[in-house]
Design a protein that fits this description.
There is one protein chain. The protein has 109 residues and is mainly α. The chain has one domain (2-108). It contains 4 helices and 2 strands; from the N terminus they run H-H-E-E-H-H. The chain has helices spanning 2-20, 24-41, 71-81, 87-108, and strands at residues 50-54, 62-66. It has a two-stranded antiparallel sheet with strand order 1-2. Helix 2 packs across helix 3 (71-81) and helix 3 packs antiparallel against helix 4. The longest helix has 22 residues, at 87-108.
Amino acid sequence: MAILDAMLNRLGDDVKHLQDGLNPDTLAAWYSKVIEDAREMAPPWLSDKINVKQDPILPLKFELDVSKRAVRYLMASIEHNAEAMPYTTRMYFLKVQESVSSEMDKALV
C-alpha cells in the first residue's frame, strides 16, 4: 500500500508540474525572456519589430507581432531558451515555432 501511495503522490506531483508549465504567468515570463533575447540578437533597427501582447481577457492567448526580417531571431531565441523551460512550456514554444514557420511558408507562396 505504501508503494501505491508513493506512486500516486509522484503522479500527482508530475501532473502539477505539467500544469504549471502552461500557467499564464509562466508563459508570459518565458515570452518576455524569449522576446528580450531575440531583441538582443537582432540588429538595432529590427529590435522594435519583435513584440508580444498578452490578451487581458484570455490570459493564455498571446499575439506575436514580428516582422518577417526578425523571425529568425525569434526562432533562434526560442531554440536557445528551450532547454531551460519546463517540459510543457517547451512543447508550447515548439508549437509556436511551428506556427510561425507555417505562416512564413504561406507568405512565400
